Amino acid sequence: MNASEAVQRQLKDDWDNREFEQVLADNIKSIANFLSTFELSCRSKLATLNDKINLLERKVEFLEARVTKGDTLS
Amino acid sequence: MPLTKRAVSPVNISRDTIPPSIQRDELQCTANGTISNLILQLSSLSKHAENIFGEIYHDAMVIHHKTNTLQQRIDRLHQKVDQLDATTDQASLNEANMRKAFKSSMLVDQHILDRSTLPAALAEQYAMCDPPPNLDALNQFRDSPTPALFLYTNPSFFFDLWKKETLKDVAERPRRVKSPNDGSKSPKKRRKQPQGTGPMGATMYNDGQQRNRQISGSRINQQNEVFSFPEEYQAPQALGLQLNFRNQNSHPANLSMVAPLGMTMHHHPQQNVHPNQQRSTGLPPPPHRASPIIKRPMDPPPSTGSSTLDHLPPPDMSILSIDDEDDDLPPPPPSLLMQQSIVHQLPTEAPSTMQFVEPSAAPPTNIPPPPPPPPPMPISTAAASFAAPAPKDGEASSSAPAQPKPLNGHGDLMAQIQSGYKLRKVQRAEDEAADKAALEANDVAAILKRRMDQVMGNDSSSEEADDDDNEWDD
């Protein structure tokens, strides 16, 4: 009787442990998921920002060339 | 196929086998092992997270740096613009002319998938791969200079292939593309000559000859039959020749000539021989009826030059050439029907035309004048006996192909005169040198630029070739 109780208790603990491990694994997966999404969105936003800044740089460069005087061939 | 960029390291966290030393609490052991693997996963995940955040931080810093620089530039620009004063700072014309052409210093992204731009995470993955076998050791046994490893793995294979394909066409193209231009060049010269000399009286002879040549030919004769109809019935091409008709009508021989519609073709041979006789008949000249062909054979070219061609503006030639081009199309079938029908409707005029024929025997007159364009005999059966088909066909074949081309050359000439293209030549040498240097550095933009120069920019080379023509023609 004691032996079966011990086995049942072990099984119960094991199920509890497995549940705990499952919760841990799920959370780790969600963290990984979040990291992937976060990286993707960050990179896309940074790329958009970079494009805009590149465009601005071109415009500023052109404006500088327009405004600059004395930069002649002679 | 999705490419794994970051792999969280321990997978199958609870499938380890229990070591044989453990005799009791196996379940507890498995649970501990699983949890430790989970902790390893967490650590791996934290490492990847650190990696991710580090990259993002790096990118953000780059952007921040760019933004700061940009902000400074904008501030400086702002100051400069504020200092500008329209009243005091008048840009001199000379300065504006001497200003350098704007050239952006921005770099174009290229080799995006190159090894140097490989993300750190992927570089780690790549480093875990097995290295290629040491095939370079076999190089000394190879005849060809390519290293043996390139036969096993060559990361730049596709780029080299693309570059070779692209530049191969570049090397071949110039000849091929230029050939049509060369073909159109000679007729253009021929075309230009009468045009440039047209208004001047001294060269009228050539001009008249040229026109005679252009309008000769059987199909044109058929068209002339068509032209004898009222303008409303004709296509615009017929109107283009009206100018020519009027000038020719002013000639005395033409004035006397009544083109009796369908029968006009019968007159040509006789007219060549007896222009005066026809003039003596003195029929009233209808303004549009006389066909140019009738006059042409007997016209002494100098007389046409002095009397009629002085009023001819050079564009008249272009009008003529348009007609010639249209003549290449098969004559419209309605004209034939109309002509025949009118011949039937006007039987009274036929005898008058026959009177012209009488003074000289028709068959012999056909033979002597090789230059005169013979009548379009296939149209009406009555004309068959008078017309001389053999010389007509020969002339048509010789003159017809040459005529369509000159117009193209003329149009090109005008377009080239209107567009300023001389400046382009100057930069060519520098550009090509820069292109060559960039080509050796595997510059994608330079390769594409050369390719585009060949595919799109061949008009510039043809323009240059045409430029030479213009210089000595005009």
Question: What do you see in this structure?
Answer:
The complex is a heterodimer of chains A (74) and B (474). Chain A is rod-shaped and about 100 Å long. Helices cover 89% and strands 0% of the residues of chain A. Chain A is mostly helical and 74 residues long. Chain A is built from 1 helix and no strands. The model of chain A has no long low-confidence stretch (mean pLDDT 86). Chain B is 63% helix and 0% strand. The longest helix of chain B is centred in the first third of the chain and has 58 residues, at 26-83. In chain B, 24% of the residues are buried. At the A-B interface, helix 1 of A face helix 1 of B.
Determine the N-to-C terminus distance of chain B.
65 Å
**Count of β-strands of chain B:** 0
Structural class of chain A: mainly alpha
Order of helix and strand elements from N to C terminus of chain A: H
Main beta-sheet strand count, sense and barrel state of chain A: none
Catalogue the unreliable spans of chain B. 175-407, 459-474
Overall average pLDDT of chain A: 86
Q: Over all CA atoms, what is the radius of gyration of chain A?
A: 31 Å
Number of helices of chain B: 22
Helix and strand sequence of chain B: HHHHHHHHHHHHHHHHHHHHHH
What percent of residues of chain B are in strands?
under 5%
**Low-pLDDT segments of chain A:** none
The assigned structural class of chain B equals mainly alpha
**Total helix count of chain A?**
1
Percentage of β-strand residues of chain A: under 5%
Instruction: Please tally the β strands of chain A and state the result.
Output: 0
- Tertiary shape of chain B: flat
Radius of gyration computed on alpha carbons of chain B: 42 Å
GO molecular function (chain B): actin binding; Arp2/3 complex binding; protein kinase A regulatory subunit binding
Main location (chain B): cytoplasm
Domain WH2 (chain B): 409-426
Subcellular location (chain B): Cytoplasm, Cytoskeleton
